[in-house]
Design a protein that fits this description.
Distance between the termini: 11 Å
Radius of gyration: 14 Å
Largest sheet: 5 strands, mixed
Order of helices and strands: HEHEEEEHH
Number of helices: 4
Strand order of the largest sheet: 2-1-3-4-5
Shape: globular
Helix content: 25-40%
Oligomer: single chain
């Protein structure tokens, strides 16, 4: 079961992805079809978002997100050293929860909408606090 701080980290990563004009997702290959589906869903359900997703196959169980114009993120069992990278603890449902949040926010018009991403979206992200709450 996810904690509310894990939900918050997933939401923050989704917002960062959507604020960027593109993202490179590095993964072990198992997400290739899922990334294609995500890209198509964003195009179909949020046509105002001009967005590019590049899939990069690497030899790692982590899923890394390199944003073109936003801070990066990672889904991993352990946090990265840098506090500039948002960490989402890897669980079985993490990828599905993230893609669901991206599509939900994209449909709502994020990042061009006011208030559609909830009150937390207006506050600065505190990565240290988030990591201290995730077990």
């Amino acid at each position: 079961m996810r904690s509310s701080s894990e939900d918050a980290a997933i939401s923050e990563l989704a917002r960062r992805i959507l604020r960027s004009s593109g993202v490179e997702i590095s993964h072990n290959g198992f997400l290739s079809k899922n990334i294609e589906i995500l890209s198509n869903e964003l195009s179909d359900n949020a046509p105002k978002i001009i967005f590019g997703i590049k899939s990069i196959i690497i030899d790692s169980e982590d899923i890394s997100f390199q944003m073109l114009d936003s801070k990066d993120g990672i889904i991993s069992t352990s946090p990265p050293e840098s506090l500039e990278i948002i960490w989402v603890k890897k669980r079985e449902s993490t990828w599905n929860n993230l893609t669901q949040k991206i599509i939900e926010l994209g449909r709502a018009g994020y990042p061009g909408c006011i208030g559609c991403a909830g009150p937390a979206a207006d506050e600065p992200w505190n990565e240290t606090e988030s990591r201290n709450q995730i077990h």
